[in-house]
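Repro:
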Amino acid sequence: MRSCEVAIIGLGLMGSSALHSLVRRGADVLGFDPMSMGEARGSSHGSCRVYRRFNFESEAYTDLSDQAFSGWRTLESITGRIILKPSAVLEAGPPGSKTVAASRAAAARKGPITGPTSGAEANSAFPAFRLPEDWDVVVQESGGILMAEAAMLAFREGAEDRIVRAAARMQPTPAGIRIATSDQEVMARQVIVAAGPWISGFVPGLARHLKVTRQAVGWFRPAKPETVRYGEFPIFLVERARGLVYGFPDFEGRGVKAAQHDQGPEVGPDEWGPPATDEELKTVSATLTELLPGAAGPILERDICLYTNTLKADMRADDGNEFIIDRLPEDPRIIVASPCSGHGAKFASAIGAMVADLALDPQRTPPDAFRLDRFSGFASEGPGCSR
């Protein structure tokens, strides 16, 4: 039976980042994933994701964003690929918007804030917008478009011989973690489970703490293409009572990509069809028409993404939609990496390195906010589990 030091189940952005980090550190690692690059399933498929340096979700994310930024730039220098395309990020909401206030506070901790601060100023700076003049606005100049598929290719470059393109099952044994595919078995000392919406199938105790949701994405033909060009039009997040809508400049010639960030209907991990409907994209279309008329227009393309969302923790204050990065208490040879909930992609370079640290250093512990013991089902410390 083949053996390895670390096996990775799931090679989306997080698993591929961990693979890259472990290979560069000389670890004996194998990655398992049945899907090929570009396949329209998995939470990491598609060309792009938003990179925000300052994040309204948590104060802890700013340092993580800085680590990720350094990781993306290092990956670019190693591979020669363009991974992170610089872009301003504009966030807007009604007066008193908690989203804008949280991002503004995070940005202020790093230095002075420049750019539009009101709807009137944003409309003047970016003609595609038609925001109410009294709206709150904050602009991050240090954001970017994360080229997700290019990043996965870069992470895997030079590690092709470490990738097994097959579905895998795992079974803990006293001698190690047995990884089985349809035609081979591998004994691993440790396993990183980064299986996205399928993660509960490998860590069953997680099922009651997670919710997988269907997220509709559309590309819109802009009414005024000259106002939404890359470099002249920012990534945007617009908060309304009907939900939070985000989108990109037309940087690929495919139109303006936009979607609703709020969680969609709950689905199973294999429920990818049918394509996004007009009804599912109704709020996005209406938001563009009302607030970004230069970007509004007919739907050119449609896609579906799945969010794997954590529910509220029951052992300490946690509003949910937070990452899980930790060793499994009952078997610390198994490392769980589920940094999803719709905002994990931007951090993948940093999280992959964090997960690799856990695999290579038994004394390393994850950030408290990401630990499994915030859930009652994982609160008791198992044998050999150090905290």
